[in-house]
Design a protein that fits this description.
- The chain has about 375 residues and is an alpha/beta fold.
- It has one domain (about 5-385): 3-Layer(aba) Sandwich (Arginase, Chain A), CATH 3.40.800.
- The protein is about 40% helix and about 10% strand.
- The chain contains 13 helices and eight strands.
- It has helices at about 5-10, 25-30, 40-50, 70-75, 80-90, 115-135, 165-175, 190-195, 245-265, 290-305, 325-340, 355-360, 365-385; strands spanning about 20, 60-65, 140-145, 180-185, 205-210, 235-240, 270, 315.
- Strands 2-1-3-8-7-4-5-6 form an eight-stranded parallel beta sheet, sandwiched between helices.
- α1 crosses α10 (about 290-305), α3 crosses α11 and α10 packs parallel to α11 (about 325-340).
- It is globular.
- The two termini are about 25 Å apart.
Length: about 375
Amino acid sequence: MSAAGAGDALLRVGEPRVALVVVDDIARAYDFGGSHPLRPERVLLTYDNLRALGLTEVPEVFEVPARPATEAEITAVHDPDLVRAIRDIDAGLADPSFGLPFGLGTPDDPIFPDMHGASAAVCGASIVAAELVVSGRAVHAFNPAGGLHHARRREASGFCIYNDPAAAIAAVLRMRPDWRIVYLDVDVHHGDGVQWIFYDEPRVATVSLHQSGRYLYPGTGFENETGSGDAAGTAINVPLPPFTGEGDYLWALDKVLFAVTEAFAPDLIVTQLGADTHHGDPLANLSLTMRAYPHMARMIHDCVHRNVAEGRWVATGGGGYQYDTVVPKIWTIHFAEMAGHPEVVPGQWLEDADPTEVSSPHLHTIEASVERVLEACLPRLSALAA
């Protein structure tokens, strides 16, 4: 039996091994306001979809309530000055303008009530997901409220106040300092915050496929960003041209994900499952259709059971601004695959535009980019694994 097949058997014997971390109240609280594109409803609608399709009732799945991250867990990846500024603004001890040097009070990250409480809760939910997997209570765990990957050590950025994927990774390294971790980011925007936080950490390999920073925020994520010091070779970036379609995208994901995980032999994978690669997303210009996402989910799942120790997988949500239509469906597709029940996804969810009508071919450009980054990084990843 292949490693992928063995993992499927593990998840389909009826044992509860797939965790859904639930933060209903905090999903409502992390809200920049009604005119902001990041809408909390997308998480709540994901929960609704999972329950309506019976995914929370299958024997393989169990729900776990979240808890807030502690200040120590947050400052493992953020400057204490950032946390202090957020707390002081929340408490009315500092003028909102005090937040500007920390990226707060901007159009992307406007100030809202109890920023620290809401952001700490999202961080805590991803840390709970990580704890479940590290402890062996779950093989896979999903926090759809998470994926706030742009927050930097000292700065809120790109709708993200605290960086929950980074906090979860830091928590894993605290629990298991001997482990290697792969972070995979399929958001349309470069996973810059996670990359920079672990840019000199040789135990963490960050992989990001995204619309090129030449055309899209945050303006980073190029092939020559490969890590520093002892971590040289651990940052793997595939910048994609605008209007890249699902055939080219899935080819690149398959090529890079399997090569990186085979070379680095991770003990755990953390995935940020941004849903803004869809052709209709209002903030970006990649061109996947709904039919791409079951293939993407299956590819990641197969890789987890083939190349990641004991199939350990922590997943978060991420970007996506068709909040009441596309995003909850894409996250439901991913969770259905994680749970071993992709058949529950309604066929009508996959009805979409003809891929050739919404995308442009870029395979030769993408092949060259993938070849360059793998040539630069794979030898180093193999050496670190050895």
